[in-house]
Write a structure and sequence with these properties.
- The structure is a homotetramer.
- Chain A is α/β, with parallel strands linked by helices.
- The first copy, chain A, has 2 domains: 2-134, NAD(P)-binding Rossmann-like Domain (Rossmann fold, 3-Layer(aba) Sandwich); 159-323, Dihydrodipicolinate Reductase, domain 2, CATH 3.30.360.
- In chain A, 28% of the residues lie in helices and 20% in strands.
- Chain A has helices spanning 11-20, 41-44, 65-71, 89-98, 117-122, 140-143, 158-172, 203-206, 221-232, 265-276, 325-339; strands at residues 2-6, 27-32, 59-60, 79-82, 102-105, 136-137, 152-154, 182-189, 211-212, 238-245, 251-258, 282-284, 302-309, 314-321.
- In chain A, strands 3-2-1-4-5-7-6 form a 7-stranded parallel sheet, with helices on both faces. A 7-stranded mixed sheet of chain A has the order 9-10-8-11-14-13-12.
- In chain A, helix 1 packs across helix 11 (325-339) and helix 7 packs parallel to helix 9 (221-232).
- The longest helix of chain A has 15 residues, at 158-172.
- The first copy, chain A, starts with a strand and ends in a 16-residue tail after the last helix.
Chain lengths: 355, 355, 355, 355
């Protein structure tokens, strides 16, 4: 299978390449970068210099996709990963589809079903609203049936992946609703901010420091609400706060629910264990075990645990993922596996790199 | 003024010494360490080797306090900092008082008013319950009137300092109560775990990692509830979850309240600004500014900010302190200032070391 | 092929398990831990809980190896990894060999050819000196011919792997000798110190800190000198200084040689390129590219670069490895591949996890 | 004394302000920033918001210095700190002097005596070569006699401060010379790269990573050679290699010399102890104690230790400073003390913030 990666030199693009490097039967034939076109891939990404299959790859200009298709159709990818900036996929995805390839989009551009939400959360009118209905939200645990038929997969955001998987069993059972708020206190490693040099991502700013950001609104909020409301079949009252952790990779979510409005704790545990019993990439942790981001580093796992604060009557759901893997690249490769009819786990790393 | 530091080589003890090093009129005459008695102080703590006043100090055995009092009364301290392990102050404090000195206790041993709580939260019967009523909880913003008269000051825990200061203005106005939960999601740097080599404090475990701990119960919980209930004059439903951040110093609290049960946001902002207008060590941050732990590193400040999540109807209170400074050593020195009739800010660092 | 891991819960043992998890045709049948015998493997190492093959493994007591061999010979491993503390393999290796299995030893116990060196560097008489001659030093680039025939492979130390690969091309050409010193300034991540909770490995000690250690003598020194002298066929004057870096994984070596005693710079570059042209796990970096430890994280690569300081007449050789991978676990699995006649790269990760 | 800080919002400028905040008798009357002129100082630097003296300061445009002098002479500073980018002081310093004030320059612009060196190392012709002879190199241990009379102090670079102090006792005794190379392997925290968002300073690039940089030439090299040659009264063969450490603050130097060309080790120790016996900011560490950057964090100390590698015949000098304090801001304030006739240690922090 021929694969293309648009935006190959960013953190998510290179994370996709890192996983594809060891996926059997994968041929990466096109890699692009607007800023570094013409350069050898492994000159830009020296950490991938040992992968024989990447030895000859040269970064191309994404403007040249049509030309490549025409002049060298045998090299043209069947599936593209769009690992570009938010808003850049709006125009890119229709081009990919028009060229007869499928697209797995790692931006937020096709995750929301309502075009009206884009100006609110992404500060831009959607450029291809006609594709929103067709795009499939690529969270396999929720949309496994639809993904294989999709031309355009909207790979979920990192925070939403963690939060939705943490709450889906409750939502599906109608246990979430507008009456009682769901508090989602989330924390992310700095790689989530991408490779662009912005001041808050500097080592000297982020290291030995911790703080919240976008406290009154983050673009991942509507994605969480959309998917969970869909499951719950009613509106939700969900409050999301992201924080920046001085670490490279990892997302942790600590979620708070009013236990007094829920079934007994052991019943909820049973619900989670049952819901995820056959999901190989969700690990419901044994009672008392606290999920740690290091336990999922480099993998596609989402670890979930449940705790009851009896004194305050609060149910705490604690979960972790690797923001660049399950929150981006490895989930995208799972989606590749699904759209190409392969085993869902083909090439997906199982052993976390810890420490 | 002659000062003693019991447990001088731990993180809180050496942080106290670091601050006293530049406090005018301070003479540290006794430093103790059970494990390192007989050693020069600056041999154990080479980072303090440049302080002239510490040049001749030798670590003594805390068992020898009575002997020092007897043989060398002119050297015996007027005030002691107890920077020992939890449960060790229970027996130590009465000895200090019996020797005619005052004690500022940095452990949890005299923070709770009810002796019955100690077996629950500290896994031990209290050894000196008769002192619990006398001990003053050393949070100056709450107990400034009582501290100067105290023989025994219970210096607050790090998490409670941050949480109580964040909620006191609401509690005092009767805006907290048992009906609606207060969610306190807190994060701490690793120095909070102390200098004892336990596996979870190892660099290779804590670095590039993030996780919650003691999710169903942490000994700082009753302290928060005690002080806030006292202010609110009714019970509270408070849920506290601590997390470990890969950083040395700092605590952040993100606190969630149901905004629908509270006065309008701008009214609450006004309440905080008024409450802390004359408090030099609490900075209510201007609207939109998110507190960062690096902004208080090495100082006694507590930075507090308020945010309204309109979509979910949640009030978010975000605050930060330095766990070893405001959460331990610098607050203890403020208490020293109060018990000795000095200006509250004498010797207290004002400029954060950032980066 | 049946594999055993002695000391499965330490950092090198679990790193071996992490790599074996994705090596085709590998069956781990015995895992041991003195301290945690009886516990499920994935209970001790929750980051490996998603590997189906490890689901049923229970940690056993290493004292029981003979019993396992007797009662369950079909489960007994053909090859063991000894991932224990220094000095523990001295008695363990002969037991493994006597049971008919091969041993890949990750300690320093069989690396030095002279039994007389052990009391000097490892503070203990060797318990099995008769095996020293037989043990093969498992650096494939130097001993590829001997490893396949070995019963006992002494997997190289982390620092020596980096230093020896950096200097072998010069040593082999007789360009190193006793006249001019070789200065090896090396830096390591904290995981090199292992999982034992010692004070200097605490996060609060190692983070935001940097320092040398064992400045006048580290047990890896004789290993470097032994192998390089062997190649050079004469004694060497080599000075090694290790430093501790606040990072999890990685070793960097900056090596200094008097350029005035060496052939011209471009000739030396040519020498390195030729020497390593067919070595898949050594990357001689293009001119001007500085090796970074993050570029080899999780992989078996050693990246080497050469620089000429013209002003001072100094040749600088800069190299990096991952201390837990090339410096321990992945090199051990390469040795497994060699002793079992497999392709040298079977199951060895090629793409670094960066960031 | 009225003080001005040009470039107040960068890391060195704000570090100067942090120290001045607690220096008695200091009135900061002018702070400038090209990019943030018009903003309140504590809006840009919220970590200084608790310093009463800074409450009313507004960032001004450095172009307005003459106007301030004219319209508000009573506010015009007597001494300015120039905490700007390299090459910006070349034109700024003569303006300050022309306005009748003194300048303590934290850039490299007046450190080298030979104008011819600037195009080589700073890639620019010097704009004020006439001031080079007048400028005094502000390393108090070497130039204490000249600094008080200087109008323009060239505050030393961070690496040179550490290296020169480590080698001065040998250079002064004629023990350094052109025959034998001095190898200076140095490591710095990321704050040394400043606050400009460049990719290599990103958290996700620098964290859990270690690498050398500018391996064939760094602008601090000529500064080291100039000062040490001056002491030695002959040329030197000095090789300097900087490395980037994932930490905020700190510089470590490990320096290698051929012990066979030097007096016996104990004699050299004696030389260092004697040389620095009356220097309050240089601590010659007791035998066997390895300097750690955390031991000097936030202070003006340079810790130096000597080790003999007997096997290789190498003398190792290991030293540490805080790059933003002794390597920039606190040394600059010591220079302020000297030019204003105050005690050298006025306002200089003595207790390191550790952890």
């Amino acid at each position: 299978m021929r694969i293309g990666v648009i935006g190959a030199t960013g953190y998510t693009g290179s994370a996709v390449l890192g996983i594809l490097a060891q996926r059997p039967g994968t041929e990466v034939t096109v890699v692009t970068s607007r800023g570094e076109a013409g350069r050898a891939l492994t000159d830009s990404l020296p950490h991938l210099a040992g992968v024989p299959a990447y030895a000859g790859l040269v970064l191309e200009d994404p403007a040249d996709l049509e030309k490549i298709r025409e002049t060298d159709p045998g090299r043209f990818p069947e599936v593209f990963f769009l690992a570009v900036s938010h808003r850049a996929s709006m125009a890119l995805a229709p081009r990919i589809l028009a060229l007869g390839a499928k697209a797995i989009d790692l931006t937020g551009d096709f995750r929301l079903k309502s075009a009206a939400q884009y100006p609110v959360w992404y500060k831009a009118e959607h450029e291809s609203p006609e594709l929103l209905a067709e795009a499939v939200y690529g969270l396999p645990e929720l949309h496994r049936a639809e993904i294989p038929r999709a031309r355009l997969v909207a790979n979920p955001g990192c925070y939403p992946t963690c939060v939705i998987l943490s709450l889906a069993p409750l939502a599906e059972k109608g246990l979430l609703g507008p009456d009682s708020p769901v508090i989602c206190d989330c924390k992310s490693g700095v790689s989530g901010a991408g490779k662009s040099p912005v001041p808050s991502s500097l080592f000297s700013e982020a290291s030995d420091n911790f703080h919240a950001y976008k406290v009154t609104g983050h673009a991942h909020t509507p994605e969480m609400i959309q998917e969970l409301s869909l499951l719950a079949r009613r509106p939700l009252r969900l409050s999301f706060t992201p924080h920046l952790v001085p670490m490279n990779r990892g997302i942790e979510a600590t979620i708070y629910l009013d236990a007094e409005r829920l079934p007994p704790y052991q019943e909820i545990r049973g619900l989670y264990e049952l819901r995820y019993a056959s999901e190989r990439f969700v690990r419901v942790r044994p009672e008392g075990r606290v999920p740690e981001t290091a336990d999922v580093r480099g993998t596609n796992f989402c670890d979930v645990a449940l705790f009851l604060d009896e004194g305050a009557g609060i149910l705490k759901i604690v979960s972790v993922i690797d923001n660049l893997a399950r929150g981006a690249a490895s989930q995208a490769v799972v989606n590749l596996n699904l759209v190409s009819g392969e085993d869902e786990g083909l090439g997906i790393p199982l052993a976390a790199l810890r420490p």
